[in-house]
């Protein structure tokens, strides 16, 4: 029973670097890259949402600033 416990604690052998890079290459080849049109549409959507959110935040800031100056 003591032998079984000692076998579990032994460190596993390290994999070679070559197998890591082979695995990396295999996983990299599984990536499905978007086409140019999709990237363009998604970029435009992100820019539009960022501008809209910026305008909303600026409007809220202006309202809060006006409200505080009116109160004080």
Q: State the helical fraction.
A: over 70%
Count all strands and give the number: 0
SS content category: mainly alpha
Ranges where pLDDT stays below 50 over 5 or more residues in a row are: none
Radius of gyration: 29 Å
Give the count of helical stretches. 3
Oligomer type: single chain
Shape verdict: elongated
* Largest sheet composition: none
Summed over residues and divided by their number, the pLDDT gives a mean of 85
Summarize the helix and strand pattern as letters.
Answer: HHH
Q: Cα distance, first to last residue?
A: 79 Å
As a percent range, the share of strand residues is under 5%
What does the model show?
- It is a single chain.
- The chain has 72 residues and is an all-alpha fold.
- The chain has a domain at 34-72.
- Helices cover 79% and strands 0% of the residues.
- It contains three helices and no strands.
- The radius of gyration is 29 Å and the shape is elongated.
């Amino acid at each position: 029973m003591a032998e079984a416990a000692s076998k579990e604690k032994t460190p596993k052998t390290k994999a070679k670097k070559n197998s890591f890079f082979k695995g990396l290459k295999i996983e990299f080849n599984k990536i499905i890259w978007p086409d140019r049109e999709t990237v363009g549409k998604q970029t435009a959507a992100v820019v539009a949402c960022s501008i809209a959110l910026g305008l909303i935040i600026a409007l809220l800031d202006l309202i809060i600033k006006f409200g505080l100056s009116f109160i004080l």
